[in-house]
Design goal:
Layout: E1 8-11, E2 14-17, H1 19-30, H2 39-48, E3 64-68, E4 71-79, H3 80-83
Antiparallel strand pairs: 1-2, 2-4, 3-4
């Protein structure tokens, strides 16, 4: 049963986030303070902090192509353990 908008998928230790939907939910969670960075800047910061497990080096993109629920998608690839059930602290690695 859905509990809100779908922002991604968990597959084992992998977390795949739909970039636009997850950014929009993050903006909503920030409330009146709003995020001080754009969606693209946030993606770059995730990479800088070592939170992106894989990127598409050949296409020079931070998103990767994955087939999820039978559909090809462009997603951000993170480790579920870095964000789910743990305090997510963003620090450069």
């Amino acid at each position: 049963m859905p509990l809100g908008p779908r922002i991604g998928w968990v597959a084992g230790i992998d977390l795949y986030l739909e970039p636009a939907a997850s950014y929009q939910v993050a903006q909503q969670l920030a409330g009146s303070e709003r995020l001080a960075v754009s969606e693209q800047t946030l993606r770059c910061r995730l990479r800088e902090c070592g939170l992106l497990v894989s990127t598409d080096v050949g296409r020079q993109m931070l998103t990767v192509r994955r087939t999820l629920e039978g559909c090809p998608r462009q997603v951000l690839h993170l480790r579920a353990s870095d964000l789910i059930g743990a305090r997510a602290v963003v620090r450069p690695r």
